[in-house]
Model the fold of this input.
Amino acid sequence: MPEAAVSKLQSDALALEAAADQAIAACGGDAREAVKALLIANEFLEREMEERVSRGYIRGVKHGRFNTYSG
Done:
């Protein structure tokens, strides 16, 4: 693996560790509470995304001039 890719992976891992530490610290040092808070946040984001997806898209209605064959 190229050195730049290894450096990027290490940088990403450090950022992830820092984010995990911040989440735990925000919950008073309780990792279980941090997991629960993150699950709630994820559920909120999933619901928000579902609300933003149009009903036509969900049903598969295609609009516009690029109605391509999908199999």
Summary: The helical segments are 3-26, 31-52, 55-59. The mean pLDDT is 85.
